[in-house]
């Protein structure tokens, strides 16, 4: 939704293979279908990613590196606000992990 969806739509309009990294399969798939319909680009795909989970970030990065021949652009757009204080299963504060640590780890893992 929002800025991320607008960026993904613009990339798809430019005929880029576009990977939507989403927490929700249902919302992500709806966005994929909407972007495909709006742009005519069938190379828009969904991959599940929760930047609030470093295990999810590692699994996503591993799959991208294994499945994609190259990665030209990475847009780190995940973020949350207003959540109650919570600790992840990895012992980290949820908002900080989602907004900063997850994106930082993802970027570093994908640098290759």
Automatic annotation (TrEMBL):
Pfam families: adh_short. It comes from the Eukaryota. The keyword Phosphoprotein does not apply. Keywords: Oxidoreductase. One of its GO terms (molecular function) is oxidoreductase activity. PANTHER family: PHOSPHATIDYLINOSITOL-GLYCAN BIOSYNTHESIS CLASS F PROTEIN-RELATED, RETINOL DEHYDROGENASE 11-LIKE. Belongs to the short-chain dehydrogenases/reductases (SDR) family. This is RDH11 dehydrogenase. It comes from Brachypodius melanocephalos.
